Amino acid sequence: MSDSRVIVALDYPEAGPALALAGRLDPARVRVKVGKELFTAAGPRVVEDLSSLGFEVFLDLKYHDIPNTVAGACRAAAELGVWMVNVHALGGRRMLEAAREAVAASRRPPRLIAVTVLTSLDAGDLQALGFSEGPEALVLRLAKLTADCGLDGVVCSPREIAPLRLALPSPFALVTPGIRPGGGSTGDQKRVLGAREALALGASYLVIGRPITGATDPMEALAAIEAEITPEAT
Ligand code: C5P
Q: How far, in Å, is the centroid of ligand 1 from the Cα of 223?
């Protein structure tokens, strides 16, 4: 169990290094995220192993399929005992509602959030896909749909935190990747943000990968982020 707002993205090609890093982390201080790479390579076993170490796991598999299939996948994720799972909002209302119902019917319902628009898509990409709205408007539309379908939150980029928080007050969760220690001072405020600034804008959880996993001393990197969030902790 953890009260932390930090979710460490365990983006590794196999279970070994993911579990090695997890073994050095404190489940009271962080949660962990298992994404497509690690899950595809290592399977549900790595989720069970992380849970056995005491971690709450965000299973980041971004389900996007017909409602029946996504409901089944969400049910399986709930059975695995994950803390949070996600789907693509572009699966539409019936898929979102089927996912929510599947999760709600499970013994220990995980939090269920949605991805709105992939941050890799720009206005031109969306136009080519037939969307008339730009990314900002589409993100807002899909986040509102997600809330309307009774899900717990969305994944959003740092630049989306403020407008989404305005439109969707807490407890709707905003889970934000793209966090870089001291990110606000890098001059690229659009794509990355410091941990403290993201929380001040209204982010609920911060997904942090390489700044921790790629650091020479991952524990020191995490401690620096924690100090940024809670200055009195140091
Ligand atoms: O290493 P880094 O801190 O950039 O890791 C961010 C994590 O957030 C990665 O696991 C990536 O898959 C995830 N992510 C996401 N949605 C985005 C951008 C990144 O889930 N729009």
A: 20
- CATH hierarchy code of domain 6-233: 3.20.20.70
Pocket test for ligand 1, best of 6, 8, 10, 11 (most atoms within 8 A of CB): 11
Query: Cβ neighbours of residue 132 under 8 Å, at least 6 residues apart?
Result: none
Q: For the whole model, what pTM was predicted?
A: 0.94
Residues contacting 97, CB < 8 A, separation 6+: 67, 149, 150
- The residue count of the chain comes to 234
Widest pairwise Cα distance in the chain = 50
Rounded-to-integer distance, Cα 228 and Cα 92, Å: 38
Q: Is 207 near ligand 1, meaning CB less than 6 Å away?
A: yes
Alpha helix (H) ranges present in the chain? 15-24, 36-42, 44-52, 67-80, 93-104, 123-128, 135-148, 161-167, 195-201, 210-213, 218-229
Task: List beta partners, residue 173.
Answer: 153
Write out the two tokens for 206. 């911060």
Q: Write out the chain's pLDDT in tens, 234 residues.
A: 678 999 999 999 999 999 999 999 999 999 999 999 999 999 999 999 999 999 999 999 999 999 999 999 999 999 999 999 999 999 999 999 999 999 999 999 999 999 999 999 999 999 999 999 999 999 999 999 999 999 999 999 999 999 999 999 999 999 999 998 875 444 444 567 899 999 999 999 999 999 999 999 999 999 999 999 986 544
